[in-house]
Fold this sequence. Notes:
31% of the residues lie in helices and 25% in strands. The chain has 15 helices and 22 strands. The strands form 5 sheets. Strands 1, 2, 3, 4, 5, 6 and 17 form a 7-stranded mixed β-sheet that branches. A 5-stranded parallel β-sheet has the order 8-15-9-10-11. A 5-stranded antiparallel β-sheet has the order 18-19-22-21-20, sandwiched between helices. The longest helix has 18 residues, at 46-63. The chain is globular and about 70 Å long. The chain starts with a strand and ends with a helix.
Amino acid sequence: MDTFDVVILGAGSAGESIATALAEAGRSVALVEALRVGGECPYVACMPSKAVLRSAEARHDAQRLVDLGGASSRPALDDDDLAFRQAVQRRDEVAEHRDDAGAAGELEEAGVVLVRGRGRVVRDGVVAVEGRELAYTDLVVATGSTAVVPDLPGLDDVPTWTSDEALSAQDRPASLLVLGGGAVGVEQAQSFARFGTRVVLVDPGEHLLGKEEPSVAALLADALRADGVDVRLGVSAERFEPGADGGARVHLSDDGVLDVARVLTATGRRPTTEGLGLEVLGVEVDGPLPTDDHCRVEGQQHVWAAGDVTGTAPYTHTANYQARVVTENLLGGDRTADYRAVPRAVYTSPAVASVGMDEATARDAGIDAITAVMDLGEVARAATEGAGGGRLVLTADRGRGVLVGASAIGPRADEWLSEAVLAVRAQVPLSVLTDVVHAFPTFGEAYEPPLRELAERCR
């Protein structure tokens, strides 16, 4: 039996980071992974999706070249299929053709023992991988999450994609039904629509993006519709049957019927905890793996968790943050995680970005919350960019005079929302924020009027 200081289950963003840092600090580490080092983000999620979105944005901007003053006549573009194949070629280069050889080599150079296969705890202190036993002092669970495919009548009988499969596909469908209006659903809807696919997006909620700021979500719906996406809210798919030419016929809750070439399920993900043998350690899991503020699994002294498997703000940047917390604690530190200011971003065009709480959530938490709003169309940079409108919504705690949340939609909102992220995390007083000078002309200037309004109302 091989013995290690730490055995890590899952080589996604969190697992890979923890393993490398511990090995470089002189610890003996085994990293267990059945699929790819790096997890889904580099190969079938974050990186390929953003690459295709950028290609779609470039094609969209080319069609606006006259409006933006870049040409006196509209340039001729090749057809949608040829353009999509070019986008796919670039996507696959960005995603390293879903080949993890380079990432695996870097791990081994750092001194990590990479064990291919599925790991399962067989007794306290021992993980088995394909018949090989690995003893550990500490165990880290970083097994990520798995796409949820809804259990709907007939769905198995029609052509479907998960987002992972869509981001590995080589051809675009002529028509596509997207189930779910969360971040993945809206990004995929816009990508395919901008390459000529007829896209219908259905979501049973009142607005897109779940619990995000409704007014921001409404502007995103408008943007998608402007791209040709048929956004249907308060509607869900009820049953499916094979359609013409190998496609799908979809019966909707509003009695509508759709015929599409393919269905993309974007209805969420669930933590990957099945088959890990954690019950051997007395950890019964039916959903996210519960952790304390040190990222230690509740009730365990030597079992830790990081990434999507925890169900806490399931983003790659959260996984990387939790990885730093776990690493520091395994190296003898006493670090705790603070999730108040984890940003949330949707990389559509325009982008959506949020942090902290909206007014309703803050009030539910017992905060005397107030909100101020800024129309991005009033910012000078919107005119120079030809960007149209957008919105910034700031939420403050009246009693403490600090921001507790922000939500925005606008060009590169995912970048300039960082000012609010820092303000929420550091609890910067509104009196200080109102004294910040922003460069002119920038979208950052949008902060100034609502911050002054909030500061005045907090006096």
